[in-house]
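Example 3.2
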Amino acid sequence: MTEAWDPEVPIGDRRPGRRGFPFGLTLVTLVALAILVGLGAWQLQRLAWKRDVLARIEKLQASPPQPVGPVLDALSDGRDVGFVRVTATCPGLATAPYVELYGLREGQSGVRLISACEVDALRYRTVLVDRGFVADTISARPPVDPAGRAPVKVTGVLRPPEPASFVTPPNRPDRWFSRDVDAMAAALKAQTPAPIFLMAETSSNPEWAALVPAPLPAQIPNRHLEYAVTWFGLAGALAGVYAAMLFRRRKS
């Protein structure tokens, strides 16, 4: 019987069952390895970031609040004021207009009410206040009176907005899904807003218990090391499978 010609095997080295080097499979494997290793490295970067955030939160819990104006002045000078505890006196906050931002709290869906607070700062005229969470089971809302000017003192934490991702739904006039400072400020007719949110720890409407101030989750998970080990482990497993495949091809 005549042996079949294999174009991938060099002339003079055509033994039965011998196959050439799998260039296509090698390329796919290298690309997959690069992706897995890249994801693992990204998780290590996230781990360092999360540890810094948790350390700042731990320090924050024991720190006294500062007046919001000077803190926002520091922000305008380029300083990082994320997670700084502040106090602000907001005219008419209890009856201020608001937009509703989709949110989750302890596994329950609902909305967070976002209003504008006038501030006395060198650069910024307003800061957006996250007044708290209202569960979807509650249809009522606080009263709205744009002419109201009764001052409300709020203590809370400044937090920069997280950017929307590719899975974030687009914002609508009746329901927001991302903290777009400029768009929210425009909807609330707030002038010169600071690029940060004041997450209220104290209630703007103490008489209305359905509005729950919730500035920070009670427990912030930090599983980035676990995720990094998983991605690196998958990369190692893929490399092992590829090496075993090459060994079997060489033996065959």
